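Morning, I've got a small favour to ask if you have a moment. The fold is given in discrete form, as structure tokens running alongside the sequence. I'd be grateful if you could look everything over and explain what you see. No rush at all, and the record is pasted right below.
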Amino acid sequence: MSRIIGLDVGEKRIGVALSDELGIAAHPLTVIMRDGLEKDLRKIKEIVQEYSTVQIVVGIPVNMNGTIGESARKMLSFTDFLRKELPVSIETWDERLTTVSSEKVLLEADLSRRKRKKVIDKVAATLLLQCYLDNRRSESGERKTR
């Protein structure tokens, strides 16, 4: 199996996580500072090529009641753009609460606000990718390892 990228796309930054080659564990990779669609695409393409990625999972901020709001529509549009421009499978994943969970993890790690701001996007991307990987393994009946 090849690697999968998780993207937590925000207005200013894109958190990027990367799976291991077995598709079991997600790891934080980097944060892309948003600089227009074409430049964002170029940076994502570089990561796809560097890590021989076969799939991208884009977090969609679904509302707590399950509806699609303005932010989710923007991410679906961004996802459609990526599908047209990249030669890899692109899926979406409900990312409700990943940023909140990331903030909680970082607070428990006692990181200062400034340090949290630098890493929260890639931690959120890691959480959403890990949830996706766990769900995929669970659906396929694979035994989870600890």
Observations:
- The first strand starts at residue 4 and ends at 9.
